[in-house]
Amino acid sequence: MNEELKKVLVEALGISSLPNDKQEEMIQQIGVLVYQGALIRSMEYMSDAEVIEFENLTNTNASPEEVFNFVKSKVENFEQIISEEAKNFISKSNSIMSQIGE
Amino acid sequence: MEGKEQNKKSMTAKEVGDLIEKGDKDFHEAAKKLEEQINKLKNRKPKTDDKTFLKNLKDLEKKQFKIPKEKTRNKKAPKVLTKEQLESATPQELFDMGYSVHSTEITEAIKRMLKKDVWDPREQENKKNSSGADLNDTEPKKDLFNIQRSSKKNPDDNKNKQAGTNTKAGPEPKKEAPKGDPYIEFLKNEINKKIVELNILKNKIEDPNTDPSLIDGLRAQYDQLNNDIINLQNELLTYRKKNKQDRATHSKVYNQNNTTNTGNSNTNSTRQNSRSNPNSQPNNSNAGPNNPVNNPNSGPRNPGNNPNSQPNNNNNAGPNGPRNPGNGPTSNPDSQFKIQLDALRVSYTNAYKQFYYHDRKLGLKNKLRKIVGAKLVNEPAVPQNLIDLKTQYEKALYEYGNDLYNQESTRLNGQNLSQDQIKSHLAQYKSEVIFKELIIDEEQKLAQQKVEDLPRKEKSAMRSFLSWYGGLNPIARKAISIGVFTGIGVAAITTFGGGAAVAGAWGGAKILRSASGAIVGESMAYAIGKMSTSEANKSKEFGIDSSKNNLGNLNWDENTFTHVKNQYQAVLNQHANRMNSVRKKQMAAKIIAGGLTTFALNYEDAFMHKPSSEDIWGNKEVDNGTGTTKNENSGDTKSSDNKGSSTGKAEQVTKTPEASDEVIKNVETEVSSEGSIATVDELKEKLRAQFQDPSKAPAHIRHIIETDKYTLSKEWGLFNPDDPSGKESAMMLKGSNITMDKNWNIILHNVGKGDTVLSGEGAQAYTGEMFNSDHQATEGGATKLTEGEVDINQIPEGEDGYTKLTEGEVDINQNPEDLDKAPYADGLPVDENELNKTFWKKENINIKGNAYEDANGNIVRLEGKEVALGADHKIYVDGIVSKELTEELDLEKNKILDNATVRFFGWSGDGAKSAEWLKLQNYDMETLKNPPTDNFFSNKEEKFISKLLKFAKRNDVDYHGKTASQLVEEIALKKLG
Lengths: 102, 977
Fold this sequence. Notes:
The complex is a heterodimer of chains A (102) and B (977). Chain A contains five helices and no strands. Chain A has 102 residues and is mostly helical. With 977 residues, chain B is mostly helical. In chain B, 54% of the residues lie in helices and 5% in strands. Chain B has a four-stranded antiparallel beta sheet. In chain B, helix 2 crosses helix 7 and helix 13 (212-242) crosses helix 39 (910-920). Chain B is elongated and about 105 Å long. Chain B starts with a helix and ends with a helix. In chain B, 41% of the residues are buried. Chains A and B meet through helix 1, helix 2, helix 3, helix 4 and helix 5 of A and helix 16, helix 17, helix 18, helix 19 and helix 20 of B.
């Protein structure tokens, strides 16, 4: 991850006082939550057949690239949705954490 | 209190408490008897068509914990409880009477308040002094109202209580004479209580008279309770099995603290403070007034890694130093803020579900999916009540966070610490404990609930996704997380700094849309692995060069990067000459354009298709659009695929007269059952027969004729003898063939897999399925070794590192083929079923018939048996040390196990899973594994379990001496009791 990006991300999340490995651990946990949230939203744009196809894909040993490309092929805005979910998470986190202990 | 009820006989608090407890006991006893009956029935193996049996069993279970309707329905919330009401009140009824928004905690709190004389030594003392003066009717009523008000209306009151101003808020109730380990007793009690509530809820949900509008809320509560029960059960199991030593220590500490605190007259202790009390640390036993009695959070919830249960020597703040935030969050189930938060979360998720699937989804899904890719502005307006609930929920979040923060602050201020130390510890506490509890854990709960609330297909798909994610290797998981945030960009994140308000922004989506005008997904797409041939041109738009320059930055830290790089470099060194040129080009293109993230995602792929080190770290650029590589130093541009000089020149083909039908027919070659090399050899012969003078043949045909079959097979990707997993031969089904078209292009037609031009115009290497054909590919019958590898067929006896054989032992020099012939050593699989078997059994093939080197360096023949290999073991396959194979096997086993267990105990939908298991109790394992008919399991969850069991069966590999299906079966049997 770009160091500058990581730095601002850590600051925005309010976890800059943590050791590096803890920061990464938390970012990783957040990452999958964001990805999961984006997928839930994206499924709205998929037909039932496509949802089943997605399930079948993840039932195989599909690579992350294949999974990403599949959703992208069905949901044009998938990247944007991920971005929104990520920003949403950061925004919410920042909003709540900034009100604690102040 | 109602007027009539006020006239009834009053009772003491203790009497009330005893009645409640007696009611619970009676209830448990009745439940236990019913359970015994059920178990007896279950022990009788049902016939699969025994509908009467199943019906009786269900009826019996339904009868269990049945509550008379008149007691549970249509009761208006009384202001106080009468004796009669309390006599018959269950936790659920208390809930129904309006005494709480969260039945479990409030009910327990009521009980505690009513039984003060039992658990509070100070109150007990007071009662003795006052000659056993009973609490009159008004006292418990007042307490009850206090609880209600504090949980619903006035959080500030609670803060005051927690700060110690309310001396009535006593410590945790002390259980009367715990019989065994107190923590186990506590867990058992909690589990029992929750099971009772669960069954009450279940009956209520199934009751046809229940108001349908309440069903969703009841189900949400049911799922939440289920989750709680599973977590507690897991905690109990873990604690019992793995932490005997710590448990003993804890018990000792617990008892010491009990003794100490029994005589403790300090009235400043509060329940809230006991939450963060470090008294459970042995060297804090004299720390002060706090009483951790029966507080699970002061107990060894995770003694293995909970520093709270260990001597506190990790800071210099003195014996009562600040709690180590490294413990992770330890939420207090009694916290009013926590109760409020839990309740609001349920309300919020219910309202969300209502909006999403009733107001929004049903009406719009079809419309939306017709316009795939439409912008999200089509989303409907969010109803005000949902916005309000979200606001309230988030308010509860930071109130609870502040509560945690204040408690820790109060505790630290009571220690002998400087302000700087306190500030520092609080910052860390906030960043780690509070952040995890409020942000990550809460988000997980929300996400979990959202998945559970999804429609059937979507839910199933999401579960599958989570299972898939759980099976990914750590590098890939990390890469996904990186990708998610890489797409945002620094500038966008910075806009959230300084506490930017998001109030009113539903799900953040609307505000975010305006915040980010630019599409920022491209870099994320790289990171997640978007880069593919079809999108190669698009990649140029945002600059291959810049991505390449980011290669060194796209990592978490220097150490990780170096580690991964070294790992990869080691693989490259071992297998540098293994990869065919086309794959090399493609891989290099991906890595250079996609950066380390894509590289990481393709890490496993890279094991199979190795680009040279220079391609990845060196000075080459790859033009994805043309497939040519350019050496920066020389400036030379050359083709890197099979069109190159070594394998034939397409441009020369075009100058050659077209092949006649007769020649085409003569060249056609069926795939040989002896494998790809034999097939290539036959093709060579046929081509040679067509050209008495090979110099007149097109260049690429001439190349085929003049190149030996092994080299040719390798060039075409049909044979890869150095594959670390042993899958060296192309998998081709019976009926496949190699033909030549009129332009002299050589084409592989692989049944069910499509065509591949092996030589000529548009040639590319075969990249399809490979398999282990064992020894068929060794040249001249000898195993080909590379430097540093060990040939177990050489005479090792007496040499260092080898076991000297004695009489009766197996001679490892014996020809392996004589001992154990791998499947398909004599030919190719002929049908789909066999092919599938080969795929799923590949691990067994790799192990059997060879040898492994144990931790002491002894080489042990497997003789066809399977062994559980340690991490430091090496596997010998055909005489070649295959460390990579060992690692890959381990990875596979873990992945399979993860896939199996995450379905049951993973972090998505534990509650629902538990419900599934409850339903599955109607069937024995045999029925689960082999349903008599395809539609035997009409319930979707049961189908799901059956599917999982099948999955486990076909993934049978050894894991710690057990196969995956054995493990799943064990889990299933355990669950089924």
